[in-house]
Amino acid sequence: MTDLTNKTIWITGASGGIGEGLALRASARGSRLVLSARREAELERVRQRCHRPQDVAILPCDLESLDDPDALNRQAESFFGPIDLLVNNAGLSQRTLTLDTSVDITRRIMEVDFFAPVALSRAVMPGMLERGHGHIVVVSSVFGHIAMARRSAYAAAKHALHGYFDCARVELGHKGIQFTLACPGFVSTQVSVNALMADGQAFGEVDPDIGKGMPPEVCAERIWRAVEKNRQEVLVAGKEAIAVYFKRFLPLPLYTAFARRLKVH
Question: What's the family (predicted)?
Answer without folding.
Answer: Belongs to the short-chain dehydrogenases/reductases (SDR) family.
